[in-house]
Specification:
By secondary structure, the chain is mainly β. The protein contains 2 helices and 9 strands; from the N terminus they run ββββαβββαββ. The relative contact order is 0.25.
Amino acid sequence: MYHNIIIVGNLGRDPEMRYTPSGQAVTNFNVATNRQYTSSDGNQVKETIWFRVSTWGKSAESSNQYLKKGSKVLVEGRLNPDQETGGPRIWNRQDGSAAASYEVTANVVRFLSSRAEDEAGYSAGESQSVSEPEDIPF
């Protein structure tokens, strides 16, 4: 059996790299994907899904070196279920509303932002497009 997921989105914050006791590099970062559509009652709906991505080895080192908050990225990998629920990790936001995040182990990480875009940086309120008319809010 096999599954594969492809995510295209923007980093929500700078990547964090660490090393395992055996010396293997591991980098974690969050990717937000957005979908915008008009509901049946005519209202614009924005839907954001967060993915927590882990990448290992050389890919981890490159990701930590070249990615930063706002960078556009394509991640290909596998979903990791929450050990307790068997699905996404469920948690409560500060306002008490329910939220979920999906854990992904990356096999491939492709940098989609140009150097100029990464050097210019993004403010939290800016929207960036990702090869579709949907906007990413980072």
